[in-house]
């Protein structure tokens, strides 16, 4: 059941990239982010009401929670949807597969989590994969730095997600995931809503039935169902065991992008995307994680 739950979560999150790409001409990235996190904030606010009073206060974690909101809500989500206006859902999914590696490296510097040699080796594999994917396998592109701007924005989004994950780990040393998520959303939503109000003056929403259905899906499936499924999977498998399956996200995203949007899957996607996934698996399936999983069993 744990494997089923974490795979359900990554499938839900993969649909976010596919629909974000499909909606690129119908709604602006800031507006889509605001709608998504309005629903998320209401949902997590309801869950937070059942938590102890101490969990519902910002307390000494205030600045970490603010940093968490700025990275995850204000930065990551708009960058993701902006990048999808210029790149493909397939590339987005594969680049997102680099997030766990970036997270491990950043965690070593910010919250002093040890970085193993295995994680460093996985990071090198992932960096090669991302570089090859961004350059479309062309050495000339790498030398002249002629990248698709959408891919670079998606890479920035992956970095922001890594910071969000690291800040979240720090906050969740003292409180639950529900409290950390809700409190960071409360701070961030007014900022992103103000930016969306400005964006609406330049990018008008195309309110057709298909657009509304896609927006509702993004607000509910990746945001709520994905979150609940992932946390349930972590409860059963442990954090280390669940992270092994996080690397199915780029796989599902690439399949959905190719199937639903008709995006091409070339040899570069297979080879360099495979390096990203392999790097993530190599780093995640470390002896430390295996020992942690064994203890939890």
Helix coverage percent:
over 70%
Oligomer: single chain
Low-confidence stretches: 287-297
Q: What does the largest sheet look like?
A: none
Give the domain tally.
1
Judged by helices, strands and strand pairing, the structural class is mainly alpha
Cα-based radius of gyration, to the nearest Å: 19 Å
Question: Could you walk me through the main structural features you see in this protein, from its secondary elements to its overall organization?
Answer:
The protein is mainly α. 78% of the residues lie in helices and 0% in strands. It starts with a helix and ends with a helix.
Outline:
It contains 13 helices and no strands. The protein has 297 residues and is mainly alpha-helical. Helix 4 packs parallel to helix 12 (267-284).
């Amino acid at each position: 059941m744990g494997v089923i739950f974490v795979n359900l979560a990554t499938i839900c999150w993969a649909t976010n990239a596919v629909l974000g790409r499909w909606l690129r001409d119908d709604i602006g990235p800031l507006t889509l982010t605001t709608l998504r996190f309005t629903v998320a904030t209401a949902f997590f606010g309801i869950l937070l009401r059942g938590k102890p009073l101490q969990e519902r206060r910002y307390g000494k974690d205030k600045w970490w929670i603010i940093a968490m909101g700025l990275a995850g809500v204000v930065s990551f989500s708009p960058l993701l949807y902006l990048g999808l206006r210029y790149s493909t859902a397939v590339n987005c999914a594969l680049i997102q597969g680099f997030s766990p590696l970036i997270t491990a490296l950043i965690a070593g510097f910010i919250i002093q989590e040890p970085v193993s040699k295995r994680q460093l080796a996985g990071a090198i594999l992932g960096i090669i994969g991302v570089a090859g994917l961004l350059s479309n396998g062309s050495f000339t592109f790498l030398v002249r730095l002629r990248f698709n701007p959408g891919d670079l924005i998606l890479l920035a989004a992956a970095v922001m997600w890594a910071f969000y994950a690291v800040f979240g780990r720090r906050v969740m040393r003292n409180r639950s995931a529900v409290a950390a998520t809700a409190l960071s959303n409360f701070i961030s939503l007014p900022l992103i809503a103000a930016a969306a109000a400005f964006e609406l003056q330049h990018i008008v929403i195309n309110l057709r039935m298909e657009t509304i259905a896609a927006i509702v899906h993004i607000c509910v499936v990746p945001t709520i169902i994905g979150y609940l499924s992932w946390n349930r999977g972590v409860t059963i498998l442990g954090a280390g065991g669940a992270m092994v399956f996080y690397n199915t996200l780029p796989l599902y995203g690439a399949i959905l992008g190719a199937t639903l949007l008709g995006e091409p899957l070339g040899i570069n996607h297979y080879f360099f995307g495979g390096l990203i996934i392999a790097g993530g698996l190599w780093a995640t399936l470390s002896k430390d994680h295996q020992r942690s999983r064994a203890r939890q069993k």
